[in-house]
Amino acid sequence: MIKKVRLLIFAFVLLLVGCQATTPEPVPTNTAVPSTPTVEPTVEVVVVVDYCVSCHTDKEQLIDTARPEEVVEKESSGVG
Amino acid sequence: MAPLEPWERVLVSQKDFQEDPHNQMRCDFCHGGMQAPDKEDAHVDLIADPSAGETQVCGNCHSVENQAFETSLHSTQEGYWTALEARSAPENHEALDTMFGNHCSSCHTTCGDCHISQPNSVGGGLISGHVVEKTPSMTRNCTACHGSRVGSEYLGKHEGIPGDVHFRAGRMNCISCHAGMDMHDSTDACTECHTDPESVALINSDSRYAGAQIPSCESCHEQVGASGDSNPQHMLHKDKLSCQVCHSVSYTSCDGCHVAVSEKTGNPFFETQNTYLNFFIGRNPDPNYHRPYEYVTVRHIPVDTESYAFYGEDLLPNFDALPTWAYATPHNIQRNTPQNESCNSCHGNADIFLTADKVTLEEVDANLDVIVPEVPASK
């Protein structure tokens, strides 16, 4: 009886061994992997200055850059 | 109207203009020039009013309005030439063309003059920080040009004379009666439906008082003169008198406008000798389908035989071809007026009729069609 039990256990173990994966485990190698520098994602910010808008929305700048106006003598008279 | 400061004329409101669809285009799309921090560099080849001249960028999107506007009176000022050609002769047109360019053409209107800026004739300048206004400002656009007569009458600027009831009581602005299409298109809208030759001829007549009344008073006051009108005076007078004969009060007349170019500055200038208020009923010089009236209000216009003498001798040899007391539509309408108080306020009252004694001797021949030979008898 004991023999039969031992035989069954042996057969069971044999079965388990037979079913185990055959793929060999990867073996670490010393092959050099070309190192790539870590690239942080960047956003290129292009600042476009609209000179027309920046000047014409700036009251002080318009005052500073205004050309002195000629005082035109009024020569017309009466209702137009 | 006080002129704007130089900076004020070109200050763009970033907040307001940002919400304007026209802000989707870059400034230089319309105005040319170039992107540069220096003012002088930025303004090379600048187009101050892109809606003027040959550029006319507005037409890129607003082609219908732009096409119609090309022939409108606001653009062509054809009314001036109608009068100039009638009073002059072909050999004088060259001199008058120079005169026109120096003086009259300053009233030429562009899209921008009504929708973005004040007209140049009053110094120009952005109205709402470059926002393109669909409806022009009554005081800063319309009456900036039409101010000395229509504007002052309508707004009640003459002492002792109330403004027009449509303004005082109705708070109506110019656009309430003179709709956008009328501003852009003087005749085409009418001739789209009225295609028969007779109608087209009437609509395209050279005289502003020959074509359809746009607007007519009856457009709103439909009951006037219609069956069931409770006012018997309307029924009695509706085809004999223009509405203004009974419902307008004293308005502006002018005398003796002369134009010249200053020897001192080289700038064109004008002198108008007299401006005064009066009220006269004259004969309608050109009764027609749209204006069958026998009597209309007339005002003296400032032309005289020497108005353009600076540009040549005797440039108006046919001066008498048109009246100097011109059919007028004063813009100071009142429900109750001195002349509609009673029958005899008008009938038999020679003071309010343009009789020959009120016309200067040298202008009698020009005004034969409007002078009232006999005042209607009192009742």
Please explain how this structure is put together:
The complex is a heterodimer of chains A (80) and B (379). Chain A contains three helices and no strands. Chain A has 80 residues and is mostly helical. Chain B has a domain at 235-379. Chain B has helices at 6-9, 14-18, 27-31, 39-42, 63-69, 73-76, 78-87, 93-102, 111-115, 138-145, 147-155, 165-168, 174-177, 180-184, 188-191, 197-203, 232-237, 243-247, 343-346, and strands at residues 251-261, 268-278, 280-283, 295-300, 325-327. In chain B, helix 10 packs across helix 11. The mean pLDDT of chain B is 91. Chain B has 379 residues and is an alpha+beta fold. Classes of the chains: A mainly alpha (80), B alpha+beta (379). The interface between A and B is medium-sized, with 23 and 33 residues.
Quick structural overview:
The complex is a heterodimer of chains A (80) and B (379). Chain A has 80 residues and is mostly helical. Chain A has 3 helices and no strands.
From the structure above, extract its key features.
heterodimer, A: 80 residues, mainly alpha, 3 helices, 39% helix, 0% strand, rod-shaped, B: 379 residues, alpha+beta, three-stranded antiparallel sheet, two-stranded antiparallel ribbon, 19 helices, 29% helix, 9% strand, globular
Tell me roughly what share of residues is in helical segments of chain B. Answer: 25-40%
Largest sheet of chain B: 3 strands, antiparallel
Reading the helices and strands of chain B in chain order gives HHHHHHHHHHHHHHHHHHEEEEEH
Residue share in helices of chain A? 25-40%
What is the typical, i.e. mean, pLDDT of chain A? 71
Uncertain segments of chain A are 21-31
Radius of gyration over C-alpha positions of chain A, nearest whole angstrom:
46 Å
Largest interface: A-B, 23 and 33 residues
Largest sheet of chain A: none
Order of helices and strands of chain A: HHH
Overall spatial form of chain A: rod-shaped
Mean of the pLDDT scores of chain B? 91
- How big a fraction of the residues of chain A is strand? under 5%
What sort of overall outline of chain B do the alpha carbons produce when their principal axes are compared?
globular
Number of strand elements of chain B = 5
